[in-house]
Amino acid sequence: MSGSVTSGEMTTAQLIQQVALLRWLTSQTDEDRRILTAVTGIQVGRQLFNRITGQDKVDAYKRECILSISQFLRENPRASQADINAEVEKRVLVFAARVKALETAPIL
């Protein structure tokens, strides 16, 4: 239920919630209220899960790790296999340290 967001745009989850809210505001039916309640509950649950587990940060760190490795490869097209291995190991260790630091980070 998430999506990438650029400046000023809603995530997919936010858009779905806004559609449900608009539908309920225009109809005021119990069915639309239940839909809005369910959509909002799912979004709140997802946010709580991400904050408790840190999964959104782990995913971001993983993307950064992969991008930094690919940047190294683009900038060093003639790097030896040993240099590539060393760079990958270094970037993975940084990733692992950042994930490990999440264990002591405040939840909320």
Describe the structure.
It is a single chain. By secondary structure, the chain is an all-alpha fold. It is built from 4 helices and no strands. Helix 1 runs antiparallel to helix 2 and helix 3 (55-75) runs antiparallel to helix 4. The longest helix is centred in the middle third of the chain and has 24 residues, at 30-53. The two termini are 21 Å apart. The relative contact order is 0.09. The model has no long low-confidence stretch (mean pLDDT 87).
* Helix and strand pattern: HHHH
Helical content stands at over 70%
Helix-strand makeup class:
mainly alpha
Radius of gyration: 21 Å
Unreliably modeled segments: none
Strand-residue proportion: under 5%
State the helix count.
4
Question: Main attributes?
Answer:
single chain, 108 residues, mainly alpha, 77% helix, elongated
What is this structure, in a nutshell?
The protein is mainly alpha-helical and 108 residues long.
What is the fold's blueprint, element by element?
Elements: H1 12-27, H2 30-53, H3 55-75, H4 81-102
Helix pairs in contact: 1-2, 3-4
